[in-house]
Amino acid sequence: MSTSQPLNSAIPADELSEKLTDPDRSVRNTAALAIGSQFETELADVLVEALWAELDFFVRETMTWSVTRLEEATRPAVLAAVGPDRSPEVRVQALHVISKFANPETVDAVLPYVVDPDEAVARKARWALGRIQEPRAVPHLVALLGEHDLEERNALTSDVAAFGASAVSALVEALGSDDDVVRRHAADILCYIGHPDAESAAEALGAAVQDSETQVALAALMALGELRGEVARQKIEAAREATDPQVRGVAERLATRKPRRAALRTRKTD
């Protein structure tokens, strides 16, 4: 049975390197933890490659922690692993680590993969950008709005909404798209963002309520319903006179609903 030294006693680097491939998961886990704790930067590339090969979830999590802790040393190898010469599994894992870095400097390396031919890689790249939240990535994600299956649409909605206020101007622009599917998706994301970050979109959403496509109008109206400002209230009130009975009915429900408790508390403290 393998034994390991206590973490308060530094383990030599060559020994740690060997233990990363030990058959015993507890030995591998202890080695990975020690590399991060001891800040063994000379083992950066070995650790990264061990992470790609690791099958045990818990050991992989420890290795990810150590790779993230040693970011300056491990980042080049992690970024390189996103490339198409590696397996999809390794590329997805590398993007997961990049999301843990949450470093804006990695955005340019990730952006090309949001449209990767491998859908798992593309989805993870978009997800990683949503975690890094560097605003210059927003236009690249908003450009992907449109026809998707429900799962993909919901994932992209969440990824863009993660940028909060930084995504609003690009989404407002998307409300003017010639593609009604894009317009509806943009409204859905603004609904997801809601108050307070999307308040500046109230005017554009009010205009979208008059869209010739009922589903776009309804999505815009529902987004207004997630806002609390006076402009949003006025746009909802105006929609009660809409010619489309569906829009009119939703506007009526939104206009007559009871104020939320949070909104009431805010008014009392104003």
Outline the structure in words.
With 270 residues, the chain is mainly α. It has a domain at 135-270: Leucine-rich Repeat Variant (Alpha Horseshoe), CATH 1.25.10. It is built from 17 helices and no strands. It has helices spanning 13-19, 25-37, 44-53, 57-69, 71-80, 88-101, 107-110, 119-132, 138-142, 150-161, 168-174, 180-193, 202-208, 214-224, 230-239, 245-256, 261-269. Helix 10 crosses helix 12 (180-193). It is elongated. Residues 1-5 and 261-270 have low confidence and may be disordered. Residues 1-23, 239-270 are annotated as: Disordered. InterPro entries: ARM-like, ARM-type_fold, PBS_lyase_HEAT.
Taken in chain order, the helices and strands follow as HHHHHHHHHHHHHHHHH
Instruction: Report the end-to-end length measured between terminal Cα atoms.
Output: 67 Å
How much strand content do the residues show?
Answer: under 5%
> Which CATH architecture of the domain at 135-270 is right?
Alpha Horseshoe
Helical coverage, percent range: 55-70%
The CATH superfamily of the domain at 135-270 turns out to be: Leucine-rich Repeat Variant
Task: Quickly count the helices.
Answer: 17
Structural class: mainly alpha
- List the uncertain runs: 1-5, 261-270
Bulk shape: elongated
* Overall CATH class of the domain at 135-270: Mainly Alpha
The strand count comes to 0
CATH topology of the domain at 135-270: Leucine-rich Repeat Variant
What oligomeric arrangement do these chains adopt?
Answer: single chain
Give the integer mean of the pLDDT values: 93
Radius of gyration: 24 Å
Largest sheet, strands/sense/barrel: none
Biased composition (Basic residues): 256-270
GO molecular function, one term: oxidoreductase activity
Pfam families: HEAT_2
Protein name: HEAT repeat protein
